[in-house]
Amino acid sequence: MSPQGNKRRLGVVPGIALGVAAGLVLPALAFAGGSAVGAPAADTAGPGCQSFWVAPNGSDAANGSKAKPWRTVEHARDVIRTRDLTRDLRCDLVVNLKAGTYPVARTITFDDRDSGSNGHQVVYRSADGPGKAVFEAAEEVTGWEPYKDGIYKAKVDIDQPFYTLYVDGERATTARYPNRRSDEEWAPYLESVLIEPEKEAVRDQVGYTEGEWDETWNLNSYTDWPAQLMIWSGGSWSWFTDTVPIKNADWKDNKVILDYWTRYAMINSRAGSRYFVQNSLDLLDAEDEYYLDWATKELYYKPRGGTMDGKRVLRPTQTQVLSLAGATPERRLHDLAFEGLGIESTDFMQWYRSGWISAGDSGQKHKYPEYDRQIEMTRNRFGAVTLTNTRDVELTGLHLRDTGYHGVYLLSANDHVKISDSLLENIGADGIKVEGGYPGEGDVAHHNTFSNLYIDHVGELVPGDAAGIELMDTGSNEVSHVVVKHSARYGISLEARPEVKDGEGYALNNKFSYIRLEQTGLDSGDMGAFYTYGVDNQEPHPVQNTVKQMVITDVIPDASMPDSGTRGVHMDAGGCGFSFTDIEVGQVTDDKYQSYQCNEVTNANWVAGFDATKMEYDKIGVLPTFPYDVAGR
Ligand SMILES: [Ca+2]
After folding, report:
1. Strand 122-126 relative to strand 133-136: parallel, antiparallel, unpaired?
2. Reduced to 3 states, what is the DSSP secondary structure of residue 211?
3. Is 310 exposed, middle or buried (0-12, 13-18, 19+ CB in 10 A)?
4. CA 175, CA 279: separation in Å to the nearest integer?
5. What is the DSSP letter of 91?
6. Distance 179 CA to ligand 1 centre (A)
7. Which pLDDT belongs to residue 270?
């Protein structure tokens, strides 16, 4: 195999493949054997194969050699750009990042000027092994002093507020009422009541039961830092959550008025909406709760065990660590790879609502304006890693953790993107979200690979619509050897819109295999751990998406969940043209499988005659080569 070999075209495992492709010249991360320890990288690359070094204690005035590394990845990027080093590559151009923490004070951006060439990549890699070079979009908070009742406080030198907090690698809870039952649950909740007869449709006011709210609570009404509701709007529909600032309380009429309309109304015929109140110092009374006083720039936190000794508190500074964006769908960023990086501790936002309320609300003209309701609002289209207008970009061996919002977000035009061999955990919204373009306007998001992934705890801040992997109007993707664990709603979902005509939707020819969905549907209803919607909306329904070798463990929601039950597989309106082969579903509160007569099922445990010996249990989930230790999870 020649040193000029291209690993993607060789079609072998990443990491190992880099070592093969670059021969003895440039050993790659050792991804074998489940070890998190990688082999050290070689000092120099071969003739014509340039490599550079970056280290947390380096200097951007140095020369970028292993002995004199640079300090920032931005400097490496700029040197490569200005020297035009990516033109006519004969092998991969590698930037080695030494172990340590790289603070991200501003989102690191790459664009189409940073692409590889001739099929060779520009590679940014953690040289000391997977997860060793860490991009941290946060600053540590120190200088804690006792306040009262086991609460500590510290000054924070900030010029903008933050919307989540991390303590020792886990998310702390924004001070709330009622207090959460445990770290693993969002419950308990209060429930909205009808403000007055015929007011079911109201979306910006929440009626409460007399006595449930305390009129002495400081809600910071009419300020830029008000208390918020986290609410499953829609009454008994437990489909989406809003996090919405409170404008003010009307104590006389037992209601609060919100700054923005919620996704759905607060009441329907069966029930009110479940919610909790958060973001007031008066609600800080439980261990692991925090409150930022934005006006005085003081952070309050009640530590577990009564002491701040040994606790590392990180306040996020950025919502995004990496932005990978070509200028246009025609001018894409391509042949860029990130290997083994740690990416962590990003921020959330003050107001979140899933999608626009009505078709056309985006204000943009589209053939299918209904798709507005299915996708994120423009202001919310980002992840800790955001890709748009890319192709042949690889994210491998990542340890992506503690994000305020989505983990990796593929927005609009992206193809042949590969995310593999990665651990994602403690994710604010979706682990991986792909949002293809509007139906009927061009197939721009396809042929992406999501493989050998362990995605643990998603939707921590956006439990409504949470998914380990959510694919919107995108096709010819491969999703394999994936574990999704702990989600209030979906494990995996694939959606477009029921209005879309044949030939104008692109969520086709996707292949799902060797998947384990565990602890899903923890706090929502009318759902499936594997869910589809509006994919194939007209007869006939030839098989165009396939699912095989999937285990779904018990799907049991919180007792407070008022909606219809949970399912293993839910093929909602337009969930047609699928084949299911060798599927096993655990306990559910509704049907294991709900579908119209438009899909094929071969060997599933909701059908008589299920043959468990056809299940390849040992191949379901991540592969033995997985680079992080997830044993015992
Ligand atoms: Ca509380």
Report:
1. unpaired
2. coil
3. exposed
4. 6
5. S
6. 5
7. 79
Are 172 and 287 in contact, with CB atoms under 8 Å apart?
no
For residues 525 and 589, give the distance between their C-alpha atoms in angstroms, rounded to a whole number: 9
Centre of ligand 1 from the C-alpha of residue 321, in Å: 31
Q: Are 405 and 459 spatial neighbours (Cβ–Cβ below 8 Å)?
A: no
Cis peptide before 188 (omega within 30 of 0): yes
Residue 34 — φ and ψ, nearest 5°? 70, 10
**What's the gap in Å between 519 CA and the centre of ligand 1?**
26
Reported confidence tier of residue 49, pLDDT bands at 50, 70, 90: confident
Separation between Cα atoms, residue 102 and residue 92, nearest integer Å: 23
Phi and psi (nearest 5°) for 8? -65, -45
User: From the CA of 580, how far away is ligand 1's center (Å)?
Assistant: 45
Strand stretches in 447-541, DSSP E: 449-456, 469-472, 478-485, 492-495, 511-518, 527-533
CA 227–ligand 1 middle distance (angstroms): 13
Q: What are phi and psi of 39, to 5 degrees?
A: -75, 145
What is the phi-psi region of residue 143: left when phi exceeds 0, alpha when psi lies from -120 to 50, beta otherwise?
Answer: left
Cα 173 to ligand 1 centre (Å):
9
pLDDT surpasses 90 at 3: no
135, containing H or E segment:
strand 133-136
Q: How confident is the model at residue 269 (pLDDT cuts 50, 70, 90)?
A: confident
Distances (CA, A) of 235 to 258, 560, 617: 16, 12, 39
Q: How far apart are CA 472 and CA 120, in angstroms?
A: 30
Give the start-to-end residue ranges of the domains of the chain. 139-314, 348-619
What tokens does 200 get? 């079911």
Alpha carbon of 405 to those of 159, 228, 318, 429, 434: distances in Å? 21, 17, 11, 5, 14
pLDDT digits (tens, 9 = 90+) for 158-167: 999 999 999 9
Determine the distance separating the centroid of ligand 1 and the alpha carbon of 149, expressed in angstroms.
13
The Cβ of residue 367 has, within 10 Å, a number of other Cβ atoms equal to 14
In the chain the first and final C-alpha atoms are separated, in Å, by 39
Average pLDDT estimate for 176-204 = 96
- Please give the distance of CA 405 from its chain centroid, rounded to a whole number: 6
Cα Rg, the chain, nearest whole Å? 25
